[in-house]
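Issue: ligand-bound run for arginine - logging full I/O for the record.

Environment: standard queue, default settings, no custom constraints.

Inputs:
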Amino acid sequence: MKTIIELINDKLTAAFEEAGIPAQYARASVSNRPDLCEFQCNGAMAAAKSLHTAPLGLAEKAVEVLAKDETFAKAEAVKPGFINLSLSQEALAAYLNETAQAEKLGTSAIGRGKTAIIDYGGANVAKPLHIGHLRAAIIGESVKRMYAYNGYDVIGDVHLGDWGLQMGLIIEATKEAHPDLPYFIEGYTGEYPAEAPFTISDLEAIYPAASARSKTDADFAAAAHAATVKLQQGDPGYYALFSHIIRISVADLKKNYSNLNVHFDLWKGESDAQKYIPDMIQSFKDQGLLYESEGAMVIDVAEPTDAKEIPPCLIVKSDGASLYATTDLATLVEREQLYAPDEVIYVVDKRQDMHFKQVFRVAKKAGIVPEETRLAFLGFGTMNGEDGKPFKTRDGGVMRLEHLIADINDAVYERIKDNEELTEEEAKAQAKVIGLAALKYGDLSNQASKDYVFNVEKFISFEGNTGPYILYCIVRIKSILRKAAETAGATAAAAIRPAASPAEKTLQLVLARANEVIEGACRELAPHRLCQYIYEIANAFSSFYHETRILAEPDETKKAGYIALLQFTLKVLNDCIDMLGFEAADKM
Ligand code: ARG
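Outputs:
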């Protein structure tokens, strides 16, 4: 289905052609003076320049044609050559009714036939999920949902950090505590135990202790490093232990992510890419891309047009160990073989910008991915505390995700617990739903690349540009619809009617932009645009609600039209919050 702007552009094009104005200037946009008109076209000014004539004359000629079209309630030419347009109530209502019938709010499935991988999460195995992983999860989940809505075959991959020194640290610490376990017996050929020698809470204690010790105990650090290398070379005992660590950590991570309403299709990690490395490096050599620099093997990625210097990409370190970039490149080899994606989107801290720039360039240069594959880096900023520094707990430690979520839920519960419509149990359940909306909206409403300040009080407020405000608006609409359904007969599958008031028209105009906004947010990887949009809807709904007798409307036809409009408003809001990754509350 065409967007409302496209439809207006079609009308403008026809009018320009009839008036003898080159059609390339027939472009409308939403008016930045809503007090004067709803849409505007500035094309007559540019056209006049190229035709060496007066703009107002051209605008008037076009307007003469447009004024005859019933699509417009108003078409005027204004000095020096603007064309101001407003839609007729009938055309607007007809457009909304068509959208309401269409699949996915009349979006045009821009991703149909395409496969996209969203690489987000990036949690490190055996370390607790902390605040640094929060944004990747929230933003990535939303991008994945936007992609699915717009018709992509989309695959979300958690891409665990599971191949680093933390593994060696845990293995070495376990070896010290239980040296007689079969994992550590040289030449052992029997079965390894099915049960792990540790639980998730053991792991949570082992890792920080081992990590701290490695900073002061050089022998232990060297042993952990050696254990990491031994694991990476495929020692069977170490690998069996590694598999336990992964299994236990992943079970715990799944629980944590699931509390955030974040779900991955693939639970792969850095370790899965390792087997592709030798062939990949051979291919780099065969292509003559790899050369030695300061003891390491590197690939040049600088381009003459670079404004800033891009250093060569490090592929093999002097000690022979593979690197972060090597692993990411090998992961692309694997993804190409298994999924041949049209797009790979990385949702990672923006400080890794240079890393991805290098990886993308090598991937294209070495032919790991075809030239036309879109490799995109969606880098996000830091979540800061009130002091403008990265968010910490009150005692200055790293905040664990589950504690942060619990804090928010408690704060929401305090706010709603006195609502008499809710039992204590209901209030607790709703607090979780509202808390998640508060957290996610608080994050997603900021442009991803910007840092933002985490402020519980602000995020959970029921007023202003917040998740709870949006949910409150949804709760209110649902309650009207419930009451309307109780008064039988009044609401049978009615259509949206031509707006009867300015407030109603404003709401309808906002809703008419749904397909355009949803597609634009997807193209630009910009969940914040969806947030802006639903905030606009919520405000337009509020004004309409305050100025209109909806349930008390005596004219049944009119009332049915209002109900149809609210049903559609609810649908747009629900689809958008689903793409943002949170749900509506029932009561609040
Ligand atoms: N595990 C990494 C970290 O914690 C993030 C991984 C991001 N994704 C990737 N493909 N490199 O920094």
